[in-house]
Request: fold
Amino acid sequence: MIWAACLLLAGSVSAPGLWPRIETSFELPALAGNPFDCVANDVQVTWTAADGSTRRVPAFFDGGTTWRARLAPDAAGTWQVGAVTHNGAPLTVAAIPAQFAVTGEPGLGYGRVRDDARGLLRGDEPYLPLGCNVGWSNQSGTVPEHLTRLAEAGCNWGRVWMAAFARANLDWVYPWAEETAPPLGELSLEVAATWDQIIETAEAHGIGLQVVLQHHGQYSTSNDNNWIENPWNVELGGWLARPHDFFTDDQARALTRAKYRYIIARWGYSPAVLAWELFNEVQFTNAVWDGQVADVAAWHEEMAAWIRAQDPQGHMVVTSSDLDLPIYGSMDYLQPHRYQDDAVAAVDTHELLARDWPQPMFLGEVGSRGDLGADDGTWLQRALWAGLTSDLAAPPQYWAWDTVARNNLYPKFAAARRIIDDSGLVAQTDARRLPVAVDSDQRAPLVFTPGAGWDSAATTFEIAPDGTIDGLANMAEFLHGDYHRATGPEGRFTVTLPEPATFTLAYNSIARSGAGPRILVDGAVVASADHPAADGDQRGSWELSAPVPAGRHEIVVRNDGQDWLVIAALRLDPYVPALGARAKGTDDWALLWFENLRGTGEVSGEVTLAGMADGAYRVHWRDPATGEVAAPEAQVVARDGQLRLTTPPVAHDLAAWVEH
Reply:
């Protein structure tokens, strides 16, 4: 049994900059008991800097009788190994490398939250994470290979899972078999060596990693069920009767704490570790599905406190889940995930940010609900630029790293990096989403998508003249029929139309029991369809449209059939200017993104930014797909707090920044 607590560590705080790793190794041949058990064998090493200050770090077992301790020095000069202790008592260690000369210039420091809680730092430098997930090695390449390609495209962020099915989990290795399994309470040194390579690759390229320590499938029987392969499952010779028990069982929690302590001892030195992510999508575990949310919340509190007590470098701690779970009080930043067919809708989280969270937020996973492998870069590019002009702490992080590799989407990141650097966006830490008014004679459809999953927390909405729909993030994508009508009743939209328009319901899935979508205008059914029961759930592409006259109307979408359909999009055509515009900035600087919402031909218009300081501005036009100059630099003048500029013709999309 591994008990509840190890000695707490007294360590250094995050340094502005750090030098490359120094490492000492030593032999402990007389050590008794499990070397992975930090209660029975708590080995620590004290380093002494040239100025006499000390840093105490945990050591880790590396096979045979070998132990190692690692440090990223926070000052140049001669560093020496001082005391080595075992359970707090001094140890005499022979032939230990004890002196290291640290020279050169420091690199990036550890990640932390900015004082204004709206963004992140690495060391003392503002940090804007740009990159994508690299969940695990697969046929498209190894994790180090993917990280290297991302870095070559200017990325500085990645997210990697300790997933058993990818042979990247320390305490059980897939497939679970006696010849591959470390004994209970021990960890795989083969997997640890793989993670050495991952961390070292990230260090070499300046990438900040979110290291995902657990994932939902390990403790789920319904979503990505890995419980049937989990060695802790009683049916496979383990001791946990249910997936829920992982969060409450004393032995499971103790083994988890011991694993986390080892992870910190081996890789906690590294500034490449941006954050320890406790769980991927914990909302999909059986414990949450079955209402044991309090246990999941208590586990998060316990493990966050444990990691902080054991990590002398103070790496950030995060988790990923729906934001309605009570697990975020001890997290450093927020990491919801969003999957929508429309990239801008997926990223447009102003309603979530309106909850006034005390932590920064950016999306740790985004993607289309459709075939992720089919993205030619259009979805990714729209998501990146919607994020760059939002109040999120970073652009969204694309999920499908294999699509990025297979379809060579790296230039999308490279273009964004070029414009980020040339515009000086990272230094604009006070920048916020700015209102943009567009004056254009050309019109386009307003396309919008519900933001919730199965349940609707909101069903009545006002469509504003600029196309904004407050509360849409709380409408379910499932339009329920008789079986679950109370879960997601109809959606009601009130709108004032300056001209006649067509309202369209697009849907892509129908339950096997059938569905009956309806569109009502001012209480009268104007369009309907009926889908009979089938042998299974139906996948496809359907649309139902209804004419709506000019004036003020209530439009209702409902389902009079037996079971659900899934809304792909709702469309009101025409409604908005054909030139879409978003901006983020300060009173004398702004980054803008324009989009042709018609999708054909070219559009243009006059754009007005309010709240800008009076005076002359330079306008720089760039192509978001390449980062290249898209039009000659322009000069504009702001008067009475209004900055007006006329765009060049926009065929697809266009980026710009203005500076005083």
Summary: DSSP finds ten helices and 39 strands in the chain. The radius of gyration is 27 Å. The first helix runs from residue 143 to 152. The mean pLDDT is 93.
